[in-house]
Amino acid sequence: MSAETYPTRRLEFLLLGGTLLFYVVVTILCHRADLIWDEGRYLWFGKNLTQGYYTTLEKPDLINGPGYPLVLAGLLMAKVPLLGLRMFNAVLMALAAWFSFRAVLPYAGKRWALGVALVTALHPSLVRTAPYLMTEALALCCIAGFAWAFTTALRSEKWNWRVILAAALAFAWLTMTRVFFGNVLMAFTFFLIALLPFWKSQRDRLLRSMVVMLLSFAMCLPWLAYTKSKTGDSLCWSTNGGELLYWATSTHDGENGHWFSEEDSQNKPELIANGHRDFYKANYYLPMKEREAALKQKAMENIRANPKGVLKNWLCNWGRLVFGFPRSYQAEELIMLVVVGVNGLLLLVVLVAVFVGWRNWRSIPTEILLLALMIFIYLGGTSLLPGLPRYTVVVWPWLGMGAALVWRRYLSVRLQRGEVV
Questions:
Q1: Per the confidence metrics, is the pTM higher than 0.85?
Q2: Which residues of 276-309 are buried (b: 16+ CB within 10 A; e: fewer)?
Q3: Tens digit of pLDDT for each residue in 103-115?
């Protein structure tokens, strides 16, 4: 082991152990006996899996994939209590931080790698959600693990099938955890095919990327077969796209594309006044396929009736994805000030990197450019649906990799003896 390797290994150990300890403590301090946010749904799916099924006739919705419920099912079968279920996210967050570090290290050195990893570990949106049964920790672990394996696979001189399989598994599990990435998978594969005839100098790396995506898709086929058996539709990743589009395109006075729950639609006075309760009573409780069709049809009607209002909603959604506001009929929380401060700084770093990277794209490694394409597809698609900062922060390891490389290679600023050199 070289003298340089030893401090790096020690740094990795401290990062891994420190993140794990931090989230163990946070989970203990935040623990409560009741379930909040989406915990009940994930726990319900997890319990169903322990009994050999996923959905029931009474609740046939396929809102989310089985990625996180599978993790919970394994823990439930081991009789792990609620605190232990929540605490497993500490392991996932520690791995996410470590994977982020390992992914950035070859491109920007250990200081930038540590910076990206610390943002992964300590971002306020993650500190807020990771102590509970939410998918951010697992999604982030898969995102960071994929970044490490994918870039390693493309950087290798020869085809490394072990790393290729690791990248494929990470992306497949990510897709099963956050099913929107199924759309990213298909769109990214389409772009890879389109690039093959034109980017001949990078054909080998493009082919490796395609193999990763195709293997990931193959791993997702059992889920797609299951959704087809329930809905009759091919390539159906989930069954709540209509609901999301409905709220994203609603342009009543006071609304800006923010999502509301079924309970909100029935009880919130402002939403009742805007006719949402009546529409939900007439359409939301239809059979799953008919409900989706009705919600999507209403969304299309909204777009045709008020395209400028829908455009305003789209612009507002970018604000929600980055800063968490504006939201309709809700007072803003103080935690949003922290998110604005942190995400504002990260946004500045990323935008500068995008500007400089665009001017120097020919000298940027192919695998980083392909990750940038994947980010573009994900954020572009996500912006069309109601968003929150926690939907954006999960791709931070990808954003951080590109930003760290550009800043280190083209914008490196070092202070030596009080001078900028």
A1: yes
A2: bbebbeebbeeebbebbebbbebbeebbeebeeb
A3: 999 999 999 999 9
